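Re: your question from the hallway

Yes, I did run it. Sequences:
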Amino acid sequence: MAGNIGFCARLGVCAAGIVAAALWPPPAAVEATAATAAVRPIQMKNFAFDPPAITIKAGQTLSWTNDDVVPHTATADGKTWDSGQMAPGRSYTVTVRKPGTYEYTCSNHPFMRAKVVVTN
Ligand SMILES: [Cu+2]
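Structure:
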C-alpha cells in the first residue's frame, strides 16, 4: 500500500479514482446521495428562514422544512412559488431553473423575509 500512496500523491487524484473504482457499479444508495446533493435545505425555525440568503445554481432544488410549532409558508414575491400552509414538520421543495434574485416571505408572518439568488 505504501507504494500505492506514493503513486497517488504524485497523481493527486488517485484516491478518488480508487474510491470510484471500488464503488463501480455504484450501489443505489450512492446515486441517491448524489441526487440529494443538489437539494439545498432551508429551515423555518424561530419565525425565521435559515439561511436568510442562499445562493444556488440554476436547476438546484430548495427544500424548506418547518421546524417551528406553527404553520409557515414559503411564498415568493410575485408568487413564483408558493408552498401554501406548511404544518410543523412538513417540507416543500422547488427546483429553480431561471437565474435571478428571488425574495420570499411567509404569508402568515410578513416579517419573515429571505432571499434566493440563482446563478447560471
Ligand atoms: Cu410564518
